[in-house]
Amino acid sequence: xxxxxxxxxxxxxxxxxxxxxxxxxxxxxxxxxxxxxxxxxxxxxxxxxxxxxxxxxxxxxxxxxxxxxxxxxxxxxxxxxxxxxxxxxxxxxxxxxxxxxxxxxxxxxxxxxxxxxxxxxxxxxxxxxxxxxxxxxxxxxxxxxxxxxxxxxxxxxxxxxxxxxxxxxxxxxxxxxxxxxxxxxxxxxxxxxxxxxxxxxxxxxxxxxxxxxxxxxxxxxxxxxxxxxxxxxxxxxxxxxxxxxxxxxxxxxxxxxxxxxxxxxxxxxxxxxxxxxxxxxxxxxxxxxxxxxxxxxxxxxxxxxxxxxxxxxxxxxxxxxxxxxxxxxxxxxxxxxxxxxxxxxxxxxxxxxxxxxxxxxxxxxxxxxxxxxxxxxxxxxxxxxxxxxxxxxxxxxxxxxxxxxxxxxxxxxxxxxxxxxxxxxxxxxxxxxxxxxxxxxxxxxxxxxxxxxxxxxxxxxxxxxxxxxxxxxxxxxxxxxxxxxxxxxxxxxxxxxxxxxxxxxxxxxxxxxxxxxxxxxxxxxxxxxxxxxxxxxxxxxxxxxxxxxxxxxxxxxxxxxxxxx
Length: 565
Ligand SMILES: [Zn+2]
Fold this sequence. Notes:
The chain has 22 helices and 23 strands. Bound molecules: zinc ion (ZN). Zinc ion binds next to loops.
């Protein structure tokens, strides 16, 4: 049975799909049903489904949708059924579907638009939600709405807060729902609410940057605060007794649950609330695809590192560099029926069938949890983060006893991983012998392909600032369009892509490090000079040369002060 993008196909259809895929590309003739999800892109897969049914395939349909048609439909029926009406021409209704074998779309739309002949085309699943989202009016509240909000008492709201419901009588519920659905729509990672001396506002973090703030009336600051606490079942009085409040709740966005991690601390003028959105629907955790579309050289180096039978693989990088997402993607590749994989995370980001996920509820749970792990016959252990001597020692012990351990630390460069373990109190030789790969990752903003601006070479000033050689004088590069366009929400950028640096610790390097013959920094320089393994600066410049990103984005996430060689 093939399981692709949340759709299951029965044995007969799966067989036919495999045949169609093989005809499309010889390389697909060899793969198993389980590998389809990881090896075939969504466009190729859906195009095959369309062809098998004699239908046309369009990867983009949102822009062709006449939103008046959507007004006649229930958005949650469309989202759950994965179909949408697009437009009417004479007596013909054009509709987009994802699964061409299901008939719900025709039945539902025939009753909504009687007397029309229905013509179907096939698109990808995410495009259906994009079409429905585009048409929905949720663009955040406007000033007039904000001013007219009445301040009253509210009742208990369910923990599973439906942010796409537009009928809330309670004004705080309506406002919060509006802000949150706008946040999900814009692929926001964090929502900030902040009280300052004379202002109260919220702001979204999108693609790593804080977007412009939206001012809210001062009179709402206590009400929103109390409403959010109420969502987590906490009494409003807790504000005056607790300095920091952590919590979690779930919102429902077109019937899709999204976990929210809530953090609030007191400030001089009031409070600062940060809500992290853990939108699993947007998580793309397949190596080589989406955000993790690494080049062949990087993928090869990564897969080689993953083959190491026992030892520690560490991914470093600042907060928000997507390091745990990459480790999760590695786990997905390592996940086989014959291996036992355990994870210890806070929170669990990506639930994979076949992997035992455990969430860490408090720091005290770490040690007993890992001790219990070690007795549960594991092969591979994912440890969310090494942050103290206790977790560092446990990672080393697990590696020494023959396990593969994947974990993260907060350091800027890959070579600093060894120093970080030393600072935590682990002897150099112990790290040198158990660490198998020191990696670093960054997320680099990708230019919007529809509006990027061409530049004839890099200026002398920029060449000096970023240590770029003379070949860049005439190198055509691109930069962001300041005004952006419709495709990129006026931002000039379209998502992010990951780049990594990998330092494998071979037996020879391990020996040299143990004896103190080379320092971790020497090692980094040596590997950079060899120029074979992926490195952050080189990968960043490669993407710049190919026109995928701009100098501003590269210099924001990579230390550009080192030389080009
Ligand atoms: Zn654009």
